[in-house]
Amino acid sequence: MPAVSDLSSVIAATTQWLLHAYPTTGRAFSAELARAQARQAVTVACWLRYPDPADVALLMLLGPGGAARLDEIAGTDTTEADTAWRTWVDEVAASWAACLLADPELAADAVDALAPGTHIAGRPVDFRRLTAPEELDRGAAVLLRHPDLLAPVADLHRASLLDLLGTAREAA
Are 98 and 31 in contact (CB under 8 A)? Predict the structure, then answer.
């Protein structure tokens, strides 16, 4: 079975898509803060979506689906020369990450739902930039955290995230 780290290509591509669709307006430090927040949101989304090695193996076999629909919905510019990474974007993970970025309380619930999973077992994880963003974090990711701007992408799969988290809360 694949290791949970096999999600790294999907996490990286989906993070890149979010940053391309909702760019930071600041300099290098702001860009890195925004990247950290997007990566945390996508990581949580992927860990929820693919909770065990069998799920990861199926993802690697079938592929995540790509960014074509997301690009159309978000109106992203796809004229870049290097777009191969877009094939590794997971639409559901991007949608769930958008939900989490727009709502830190929902993000905290999502992180809490990870506790029993195999991804987090034995690893020190810190998702504070996602669940409790400071003013500097919010300033660096104004577009990336704006609920109205994220809504078209977040609304794609919000219901399934809420269903999943509702089930996780009941199990706890």
Answer: no
